[in-house]
Structures are given as C-alpha cells and as structure tokens.
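Fold it.
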Amino acid sequence: MSELPDQSLWRGRAARVTLAMSCLFGATGMIMVFLPRWLEVERGLTGAQIGAVIALAQLGRVGTGPAVAFWADSAADRRTPLRVLSLCALGAYAAFFAVESYAALLVLGFIALSLTSSTTPFIEGAALRATASGKVSYGVVRGIGSVAFIVANVAGGYLIAQFGLNVVVIWALTVLTCFALTNWLVLPPDPAPHVGQHGGGERRAGLRDLLSNRRFVILILACGLIQSSHAFYYSFSTLTWRAQGVTPDQVGLLWSVGVAVEVAFLWTLPFFERRVSPEQMILVGAAGGFVRWVLLGFAPTGAALIPLQMLHALSFAAAHVGAMRLLYREAPEAAAGMAQTLYAVLSAGIFMGLATLGSGVLYDAIGARGYWVMAAMAIAGGALSLLLLPRGTRSQT
C-alpha cells in the first residue's frame, strides 16, 4: 500500500464515496425489490420470464464483467469507469421502461442491469481504498449505503401503495440521474498508482495468477453458492409475500428489516473483525442462510417473518464482508479491479444467474418451497468454505 494523504482529506474522500454508493444503492433498493412485481403486473410476464430478464444480465457478466474490469484497470483515474457506466445505465433504464415486448425487455434488461451491476465492484473498491487508513470504518461507509437501500424499500412500498407501480420507473430514473451527477461532479480524483508501471501484459499475468490461485477459486465457489442462495429471495420474495396477502408497504418494511440489521452489523464491524476472521465470517454467513431459507420455505406470515429477515445480517452481510476482506488482502494491486470483478462475475454473476433462472421455474411450480433449494446451496457453500480455514483451525472445526 502506498502512503495515504492527509487524513482530513481522506475522510472527505470517504464522505464523497459514501454519497455515490448511497445513490447506487438507493436505485437498486427500488429495482431489486419491486421490479419483478412491475414486470408481472405492468408487462404481464410469468415467473419464468421474470427470472430470465433478471438472470440474463447475471449470466452475461462472465463476458461483460472482465471486459469492463480490464478496461478499468488501465484507467489513470479510477473515477472514469463509474462516470461512463453510470451515464450509460441511465439511458439504458430509460429505454427499458419504455418498451413492452418480452424480447425488448430481455435485451434492454440485459444492458441496463449489466451496467448497474458493473459499477458495484468499483464502488466497493473505492470504499475500501477510502477507508484503508482506519480513520473511517469500511462498515460505516457500506452501512450508510445500505441505509439508502432501506429508504428505497420503505418509501418505495409506501409510494407504490399510494400511487401504483409506475413509481418504480420514476424513482429509478431520478436516483440514477443523481448517481451519474455524483460521479461526474462530486467524486474527487482517484489516481491508479499502477498505471504507467503495469501494462496490458502485466495485467493479463495478474489475471492468470488470480485464476491459478487455489484460495481465490475456492473463495469464488464457496461465496458464489452462499450469495446465490439469495436468488429466490431477491427475485421472488415480493411476489411470494404478495400472494400470501402481504401489502406493498409491508413488503417494503420487511425488506428494510433485513437491511437494517445488516447496517447494524456493518456499523459495529470493528468489534466483530477483532474476534472473527474473514474465513469464519463466511462460515457464519452460510449457517445463517441455511436456517433462513429452510424456515422461509414453510411460507410463514406476519411477525414470524421479522426474525427471519434479521438473519440477513448473517446470510448476506457476514459472508460479503468476509469475501471483501479476503479479496482486498490477497489480490495484487495490478489486478485489484479484476479481482473484485471476477468475484462479482463468477460468484454473483454465473451462480446467481443460474439460481435466478431456476428460481423462476421453482416459483411457478412450488411457490415458497423454492427456498429449500436455496438452503441446500447455502450449506454446500459453507462446506466448501471450510477449505479456506487455516489448516490447524480446520482440523478443530
């Protein structure tokens, strides 16, 4: 790591990155929760068709993600990919919401969702760099972004209940506009120290080193199973709850409960990081996911959903933080962007895409019991993540 600049400046940088992250999560908080319902009601799609619209971009990340990351790792200023991608995403979503045919929704959905998902690794990397000094916790920055996600859940549910599902369109386009403006006008310069030292050949060598690294491959496979076990929840929990009589504003509140406990975990992250290794966090995440999905498969309603939503702090947040810490600690600087993107592409892309496609079929066929397939994925990821533990620790587990 290079020497950090003046700490007051670095705290200001963290605040600006937090604003950009909040805009992105404020948009995805509406899109992730309510887009499936919008597609079902406003465009008349089936569960399998909705799954295909969402999954196509996730599967396509195997090509789009590395291509974007390879380009981004050559940028002298790491704001460049965020600026370009955010503007393109705004235009793509505007076109997506305007079309009606299933074929057009597939194509434009692929473009729009690919563009927003491609920005996430760069925002995560910017947050990790801006908090590397320890003066501001990564958990605080990530937690504030999650608060923006909660605001979108709660406000979105209320506004949809009052004014209808086209609130999804207005909210998404407005907040994506704010995201683009933040990237262009607010983010400070973020020079990449390796540019000029590492050319394309060295970046390709860094990519080969990553893919030949046993721990990196295990990390991707294990966390891919754990995180993609959320596919049924992300794409079909809103539809499942609505079929069970849960109102739109209650759906928003249920989602917000899950993200609120995630925020609490992130804001107290230093306490946990002093006591639990990244590898152990991933294991905890797998266990939390298994319990959560097994119980949600019984289609509970009312107050019983609240503690299951609170398990989001484990099933998602603990596993995510563990993975981010391992990536930041072990990836070479010349391939830092590629490491983040490969993780997103292979674990949250291919795995999540296939799981989302399957979830659409499961939703049409067996409803809430589709969660039981997700439970099996979570426990498989946990078993694989045992290989990440140091040998002595593994033998005691």
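The CA atoms of residues 85 and 115 lie 6 Å apart.
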